[in-house]
Write a structure and sequence with these properties.
The chain is of the alpha/beta class. Helix content is 25%, strand content 25%. α8 crosses α9.
Length: 453
């Protein structure tokens, strides 16, 4: 038997090293090299090639664009960019119990009736366990093909026999192949199993969805190269005891990576939320200080969210700055600008910031709302409940316009808001703001005069 050689892979960047080291020589990350024996020379997995590949013009023959397969779940289709693309590989990550398997079973039931056979492969549950969940989700799941298997080559063989249009793997960390040493879930096994399933998808045109476990940091467990290999990376987020779940795209080769979908977990499975803004603001307090509403753009969808802040006297020598949903460094910068522009000091106060509903604000259009919420808490004065706040804050305290202002204000007006605070330099919102009283602010200091009830 030919000997195998041992390689070490960086779980952050995928770099290969011949020996272990405390620091990856490529990305300089510490303690990320994991051992993975490489297959010996001459040992290869099964191949799907039937002959030499011939190049073709884009738009003609095998390379012509194929229609998407809609999953029947509107929010999932929105995040995917319109549905599953033939031959694509999708990675779905999420914490245990968040509802990944439930989401896949519901999608499988709808796809079976519209797109042909769907193969659901589970390496974690038996057929009886999955059948119990399927009964709760309705009769549509009865026609889904099921396979309890952890051998990736056996999965490919079954797929070649049944020719499903879509394969769902739950989960990739339970898959393994015999010609790679190590247990299921290690770096080498995950990478090789994903590669073989990817080759199957590209050669047959079937879409493959891989469920991935996540680490305590929220990233998909296994080699970082797994995210580079697949076409789409989705994260399903939420708390096991909470009602709402958020589906977001971290990577999408076939559409926007900025879209989010909102679901509600019920006894009959996941239900797509048709009006996320209304749901996210449903429990909003109208008289409590420390809250401001802004409009963020999640892909093509305007979404109203509430930013909450709490300023309290610090009992420690160094005041705390805790942020959920907003970058902590951005919060530190906005606090400095707020002190300079309004004269309110936060040197002896703890500042806690939260965006309700688990939404993350990645754009600067929420800067003014963050500053307004913090100032509202510091002064103990609530923001008028019918006011929405939009604007980017610069280091000198100037307010800058935000893109898509007309669409944001139209969404605010639809939900009953009557007033909008925007930068003085913002564009004319046009007829979308006819139902809003628009107040233009020249700088950060002006919010103290007009924002509060």
């Amino acid at each position: 038997m030919p000997a195998t050689r041992t390689l070490f892979f960086c779980t952050e960047c995928g770099n290969e090293s011949a020996r272990w080291a405390g620091q990856c020589p490529a990305c300089q990350a510490w303690n990320t090299l994991a051992q993975a024996p490489a297959p010996a020379r001459g040992k290869r997995g099964p191949t799907l090639r039937a002959g030499a590949a011939a190049p073709a013009r884009l738009g003609e023959g095998p390379s012509a664009p194929r229609s998407r397969r809609r999953t029947g779940i509107a929010e999932l289709d929105l995040v995917l960019g319109g549905g599953l693309v033939a031959g694509s590989v999708v990675l779905l990550g999420g914490e245990p119990g968040v509802g990944k398997s439930t989401l896949l079973l519901q999608a499988a039931a709808a796809l079976t009736s519209d797109s042909g056979p769907v193969l659901y492969v589970s390496g974690e549950e038996s057929a009886e366990q999955v059948a119990l969940r399927a009964e709760r989700l309705g009769p549509g799941t009865r026609d889904v093909l099921f396979l309890a298997e952890t051998d990736a080559d056996a999965v490919v063989a079954a797929a070649l026999s049944e020719s499903p249009s879509i394969i769902l793997i739950d989960s990739i960390q339970t898959m393994r192949v015999d010609d790679v040493d190590g247990t299921a879930g290690n770096v080498g096994q995950v990478r090789e199993c994903a590669a073989r399933l990817q080759r199957y998808a590209k050669s047959t045109g079937a879409a493959v969805v891989l469920v991935g476990h996540v680490t305590k940091d929220g990233a998909v467990a296994g080699p970082r190269t797994l995210e580079h290999m697949v076409d789409v990376v989705l994260y399903f987020e939420g708390t096991r005891g909470a009602e709402h779940r958020i589906l977001r795209a971290a990577k999408n080769r076939f559409g926007s990576a900025q879209e989010v979908g909102l679901f509600t977990m019920t006894g009959a499975g996941l239900v797509a939320v048709e009006d996320p803004s209304e749901v996210l603001l449903s429990n909003r307090s109208r008289s409590a200080p420390g809250a401001a509403v802004t409009v963020t753009m999640e892909g093509t969808r305007p979404l109203l969210v509430e930013v909450q802040a709490l300023c309290a006297e610090s009992t420690f020598g160094s005041p705390q700055r805790v942020s959920t949903g907003v970058d902590a460094r951005r919060l530190a910068m906005l606090l400095a600008v707020l002190e300079k522009g309004t004269g309110v000091t936060f040197g002896r106060q703890d500042v806690f910031l939260n965006v309700t509903g688990g939404v993350r604000l990645g754009e600067t259009a929420a800067d003014l709302a963050v500053c307004t919420a913090i100032l509202s808490s510091a002064r103990g004065r609530p923001v008028a409940h019918d006011t929405v706040v939009l604007g980017e804050v610069g280091l000198t305290g100037e307010l800058r316009p935000v893109p898509g202002l007309a669409r944001r204000l139209a969404e605010a007006a639809r939900l009953g808001f009557e007033r909008a605070l925007i930068p003085d330099a913002a564009e004319d919102p046009g007829p979308s703001a006819d139902r809003l009283r628009v107040t233009r602010l020249p700088d950060i200091g002006a919010i103290a005069e007009v924002a509060f009830a």
